[in-house]
Write a structure and sequence with these properties.
It is a single chain. By secondary structure, the protein is α/β, with parallel strands linked by helices. Among the domains are: 117 residues, no CATH class; 80 residues, no CATH class. Helices cover 40% and strands 13% of the residues. The strands form 2 sheets. A 4-stranded parallel β-sheet has the order 1-2-3-4. It has a 4-stranded antiparallel β-sheet with strand order 5-6-7-8, with no helix packed on it. It is globular and about 60 Å long. The C terminus is likely disordered.
């Protein structure tokens, strides 16, 4: 069994021996921007900021050979300064370590997941480019672009056919989050929201006691979303984020398109341009055409539509 952890990083120095003793695959540590932004939002109970302590713990973990991914929450209030973290990571020698990586993640609300005042991924990319990042570098350091580019690269490089999935993330496939009181949730964004609890840990019987709300999550897939089944992006987007649909409609069962189409098109152009340049080609190879044609065959209801022609 391999282990991973998501942590604010504040007490990480107390667990370094544990991280190296057991097979931890990775650790994700979150920062809320540069020191002034992070310390305004992540404050000690007795006062004072947490940025320096978290950064020092990141350095300690990387020095131990632990794989650390730093997620930088990026919203309207800190967008203009997050690019400065690149230079800070370089000065600390972190970017030279193969165990270290970082990415910028758009927030969907500055205070609460029900607030829809966040950023789009493209806004982060454009801002990074205005501040010295190349376009490819900016995309590869912005969360939603990273996953999309990785999937497209795998499709090009893998000899296997495209393997579709009907669900967007682990929240719909048996992922459970347990709070300190033993309440069970399926999605990070809904922790502490009473109406989103799917059960509780039964300590006496030593098992999970689920309620009927779990069925809402287990049944959230594109087969139950007629709009998705007519879309050529269905097996790439897979219905979108449940938290996003909850913010927009109040119902996790609805699809959430968000900015996926725009991200996919930008990512596909970047990855294919890079691939063709490496091969010295100016157009799709026959093998790649055949692979894309095999994907098209999965969408009989979409043939001839504008979206299918885009694909």
């Amino acid at each position: 069994m391999t282990l991973s952890a998501v942590t604010n990083g504040y007490c990480l120095d107390s667990f370094l021996d544990l991280l190296t003793e057991y097979p931890f695959e990775s650790i994700q540590i979150t920062l809320d921007g540069v020191k002034e932004d992070n310390d305004r939002r992540r404050v000690y109970t007795g006062g004072g900021g947490s940025f320096e302590k978290i950064l020092e713990n990141i350095c300690l973990a990387v020095a131990r050979g632990v794989s650390v991914s730093v997620r930088i929450n990026t919203g309207p209030s800190n967008l203009e300064r997050v690019h400065l973290l690149k230079k800070l990571f370089e000065d600390r020698g972190l970017t030279e370590a193969p165990e270290f990586s970082y990415y910028f993640a758009p927030t969907q609300g500055e205070d609460h997941c029900s607030s829809n005042t966040g950023l789009k991924s493209r806004e982060i990319v454009d801002n990074l480019m205005r501040n010295g990042f190349e376009e490819k570098e900016a995309m590869e350091h912005t969360s939603h672009y990273v996953s999309c580019m990785s999937a497209i690269r795998h499709l090009i490089e893998s000899p296997e056919r495209f393997r579709p999935s009907d669900s967007h993330c682990g929240a719909e496939k048996m992922m459970y989050l347990i709070d300190p009181e033993g309440w069970i949730y399926t999605c990070w964004d809904f922790v502490a929201m009473e109406d989103q609890r799917v059960g509780r840990v039964d300590l006496e019987k030593e098992k999970f006691a689920f309620n009927f709300s779990l069925l809402r999550w287990n049944n959230r897939n594109v087969l139950n979303m007629p709009k998705c089944m007519k879309c050529p992006y269905v097996f790439a987007c897979r219905g979108g984020c449940a938290a996003g649909s909850y913010r927009e409609t109040g119902n996790i069962a609805d699809p959430y398109c968000g900015e996926f189409r725009e991200i996919f098109r930008d990512a596909a152009v970047m990855v294919c341009r890079e691939e063709f340049a490496g091969r010295g080609e100016r157009e799709l190879t026959k093998s790649l055409k055949d692979r894309l044609r095999s994907i098209r065959s999965l969408f009989p209801s979409s043939r001839g539509t504008d979206e299918a022609r885009v694909i």
